[in-house]
Write a structure and sequence with these properties.
The complex is a heterotetramer, with two copies of chain A (144 residues) and two copies of chain B (417 residues). Chain A is of the alpha+beta class and 144 residues long. Chain A has six helices and four strands, in the order H-E-E-E-H-H-H-H-H-E. Chain A has helices spanning 3-17, 66-79, 84-88, 92-99, 105-126, 132-135; strands at residues 30-36, 41-49, 55-63, 140-142. Chain A has a three-stranded antiparallel sheet with strand order 1-2-3, covered by helices on one side. Chain B has 417 residues and is α/β, with parallel strands linked by helices. Chain B contains 14 helices and 17 strands. Chain B has a seven-stranded mixed sheet with strand order 4-10-9-8-7-5-6, sandwiched between helices. A four-stranded antiparallel sheet of chain B has the order 13-14-17-16, with helices on one face. Residues 1-8 of chain B have low confidence and may be disordered. The chains are: A alpha+beta (144), B alpha/beta (417). The structure holds pyridoxal-5'-phosphate (PLP) (2 copies). One pyridoxal-5'-phosphate sits between chains B (102-104, 132, 134, 181, 185, 210, 212-213, 233, 244) and C (263, 286-287).
């Protein structure tokens, strides 16, 4: 078994099967949801702030592949106690280090879904900057 | 070209055929890949790669306009590829064969060049619920731009088209286009395109057939289908990337606006007036992907020597074996029609486990399958899933690939179930 | 990749470089071809052919959506090619690089996707009198469809753009598009695209640059040009056929309608609503020519190792030699600007002899030149000829090729003069 | 020198330098002109009929490459004394045999230009069938 496989089995599956901070907070100060239409991963993240814009608590729900759900679980541990401003500019590498396994471009989108959704929630309540991928609209077709 | 390692007997000597495909010499953790993703793209035989290389080394120059010998050889290679493609599709004339980048581009060509001029409010474009996005979205977009309605033929629970819905669709306006694939890339369903074509013509509509998934596996006869346009792609039938073809009926192609302008599609250019070249050049703007066309023809020759019928039988045996094995597993649900009404494609769900995780763990076992919506999101919606896992076969697939798939699925279940 | 047979010194070791090109081992009546048609398409070095073959043999699967290792390798190859292309063009971001079949398709993409939505009566599209049909005709067509006016910047007798005509053009309406090539494929003129871009932006117009003929020979820096769109093609710069690229400014690409639909350009598809993917995928419908993109990147690496500056100097020396020799012959008339204001292209007329006959007889001497209008009929009209004979150079061209050309021209004169 | 080269030099150049039936007939019963825009070859053919639709005399003018002009010259010799109906269905191979050298697709268009123009002239006066390449229109852009 490769090291990669090992990590996946141990770390990812642990978070996938026993997600941390699972369940939406009620009440909450901020909430957002998002999906990765490529594979149907869905994540909703809710946040409660403490002093100023410190993230006091965070809870999530979702469904999708192990990487999307495990990475969101890891994320919730990572952000508690830090400020909205800090998280809005959190380099994705910090989360990816936590995930710990090399990811192909396809799986990268899965791993970063929760972080993107959280940034949207912070943006909505605290006006922090949105990550580029979430602000750019590329257009659509809508039939009446 | 080297002779292919096959006889014209009724059974493929797959183990010998595999030697034509260098990729199977590549080892992953000591084992060759169990490549079960041919519906996405096929692997390439040496014969095709050799032919392209020889073309680049001995016959290369830009096509059509050169007077010198290298240019003549290149043009002969390219136009010879067109004749091979016409024969492969049983087209009445090679002038009806337009080279494109892909099946997607071929379908867009029809939607843009025919659709923008011929559709408007009150008209209806009919596609199917199991259409690939490459056919679905261009028509949706052109319907949107022109004000035409956009309707689909629904499928039943086995993934087969419900033709009794047709009459209802006809009552919604003037049906001008019917577009369907011949083989569904997700379910493997073989669709009754001949009957749709008959119905379409009864409505005064054109029939556009997406044969991207059919042409690699069974012979496609554009005349027998009764279609007006048929799209295929090279990379799924042992050819290179960057090349596909559109066959279209001459009268319609001649009356149509061009799509993309410049290069050989032009007869004469003036500041006030420009005239277009005759078929098929009218639809081939700019330097075509001519070395890829030569590769495509080599692939068609390769398949022709083996025989598409033998390939089809081989895949049919594999799909029966696969469905038999998968349907025995209680935590697996197979989508789509029974084996005798489908091509070599099996989409399935592993209870409670996301297809991405299925594919990831299978990859560790050297089994390559596809996980996703397979560019058929409307079909996913109908099936009530976000994605499926899909195994698909080709001439080089062997029963051992399936055994490795099934063993891998048990590992998936053990890890994540 | 093999190391290329060149140093980064200031002078090309052309004779060693030629060994990279298998076509020169091909003999015509005992002699290698004096290939003087690189402006039509370049020959291919072994390094590019080897890279493509290795990709097909060890890294091949469809790109983007696969989770298994072969698909990851393929995707990395393709997206790596995009990074290489972005660096080659000094693009601010690789997301602004869209792969197309050719420069022609890149230019059509802009004309269709931007032009159909943004042009109308009262607007003016400005092209040049020495535009290639690949740029001229798409804009002519879209102007025709939208009711915009279509005007050209005239050239003077030396084939240089008359910029003092610009003010007059601005009085004809709202200038919305200015399109020009950076290097003329017929005359070799290097056009003042930076100044046109400045003027275009002053008018509120977009600047579309056709760099198909420039990119193989001199470094093209999209930022320094100040353009909004830049088109290049692979087959002229040692790459395979079937691949080109469009660079576009992010804000404009994002606001634009798509061109061709299906595949990776889609984010989500529903019966009523479909959304598009982010850049650059939004403009790449269907399976891209990804093996060709890998070949293109190998070609760019190859040219990069040799150095575009060294290539430019080498060609400049050849063009000086060629013009010197041709201008000495009284029955030959050379078109276009002096050697110091042109790239490695020389178009000429042999008094009283049709270019087709010139090229035919030269071919017997193993000299490959192009005869025709070079897809620049409006320029031919301006020059008052139906066609010219054109010799064009590349890194593998040697003075001996020119000597053979000149000797061949004397034979032409003897036979037909 | 290859056989091809030999033929070109002898036969083609002879017809090119001393074209047969050169000059337009005045008066004539039929006339047509055409061009090959690819390389700018131009040909005008004029015809005078005898009994019924027998081609009694034919004359041409033009400019362009040696093959287009020589082939038209050969054509004029070939058609005299035959009927419009016969010539309208003349297989192109008959003319190409006369030309006598193998031609690439590009040069083929040059060689067949005169024959096409002649068929157009016959079509106009005698209603004989037009060759496909000359009847098919593929469309155009005309700016006002
Ligand atoms: C200046 C110029 N623009 C455009 C093109 C067309 O590009 P492509 O060959 O990629 O269709 C060419 C070459 O044919 C060219 O020389
Ligand atoms: C049914 C079907 N149609 C169209 C396409 C798209 O063709 P291409 O890969 O040539 O873009 C595919 C494959 O991707 C397909 O399976």
């Amino acid at each position: 078994m490769s090291e990669f496989e090992q990590m996946y089995r141990e770390v990812i599956l642990d978070h996938y099967k026993s997600p941390r901070n699972h369940g939406l907070l009620e009440p909450h100060d901020a909430i957002a949801e998002g999906e990765n239409p490529l594979c149907g991963d869905e994540v909703t993240v809710s946040v409660r702030f403490g002093e100023g814009d410190v993230i006091e608590d965070v809870g999530f729900e979702g469904r999708g592949c192990a990487i999307s759900q495990a990475a969101t679980s890891m994320l919730t541990d990572l952000v508690k106690g830090r400020t909205a401003q800090e998280i809005s500019v959190l380099p994705k590498e910090e989360l990816l280090d936590e995930v710990g396994i090399p990811l192909s471009p396809v799986r990268l989108k899965c791993a970063l879904l929760g972080l993107g959704v959280l940034k949207v929630a912070l943006h909505r309540t605290k006006g922090t900057p949105l990550p580029e991928e979430w602000s750019a609209s590329s257009g659509e077709i809508t039939l009446s | 070209m080297d002779r292919v390692s096959a006889t014209t007997s009724h059974v493929l000597d797959t183990h010998r055929l595999r030697a034509d495909f260098p990729v199977f010499e590549e080892l992953f953790d000591g084992k060759p890949v169990a490549y079960l993703d041919s519906a996405s793209s096929s692997q390439k035989p040496r014969q095709v790669l050799d032919r392209m290389r020889a073309f680049y080394e001995h016959e290369y120059a830009n096509v059509h306009r050169g007077v010198y010998r290298l240019a003549e050889r290149a043009t002969e290679g390219f136009e010879g590829a067109r004749r091979t493609t016409a024969a492969f599709l049983n087209a009445p004339s090679e002038k009806e064969v337009v080279f494109t980048r892909s099946a997607t581009e071929a379908l867009n060509l029809v939607a843009y060049a025919w659709g923008l001029d011929n559709l408007g409010p009150g008209d209806v474009v009919v596609i199917t619920e199991l259409e690939h996005h490459a056919s679905f979205v261009p028509w949706q977009y052109i319907a949107h731009r022109t004000g035409a309605s956009f309707r689909h033929i629904p499928i039943d629970d086995r993934g087969e088209l419900q033709l009794d819905a047709l009459d209802g669709l006809a009552r919604e306006g003037d049906v001008k286009v019917v577009a369907s694939n011949l083989v569904s890339n997700t379910l493997g369903t073989i669709n009754p395109v001949e009957r749709l074509a008959e119905w379409a013509h009864g409505q005064g509509a054109i029939m556009v057939v997406d044969a991207a998934q059919a042409a690699p596996h069974r012979s496609v006869d554009v005349q027998a289908l009764g279609a007006d346009f048929v799209a295929i792609t090279g990379h799924k039938l042992c050819g290179p990337t960057g090349i596909g073809a559109l066959w279209g009926r001459k009268e319609i192609l001649e009356a149509m606006s061009p799509f993309n302008l410049g290069g050989e599609m032009i007869r004469s250019v003036g500041l006030q007036k420009t005239t277009f070249n005759e078929l098929p050049h009218k639809f081939e703007a700019g330097t075509p992907a001519f070395a890829e066309a030569v590769g495509l023809a080599a692939a068609m020759d390769y398949l022709g020597e083996i025989g598409l019928e033998a390939i089809e039988r081989h895949e049919h045996a594999l799909v029966e074996q696969a469905m038999g094995a998968l349907e025995e597993i209680p935590w697996i649900r197979v989508f789509g029609p029974p084996a005798d009404r489908r091509a070599g494609i099996v989409s399935f769900e592993v209870e409670g486990i996301h297809p991405h995780d299925v594919a990831q763990i299978l990859d560790w076992e050297g089994v390559a399958v596809r996980a996703g919506h397979h560019c058929t999101q409307p079909l996913m919606t109908r099936l009530g899933v976000a994605a499926t896992t899909r195994a698909s076969f080709y001439l080089y697939s062997v029963p051992e690939d399936l055994e490795r798939l099934v063993a891998g699925l048990y590992k998936v279940k053990a890890s994540l179930g």
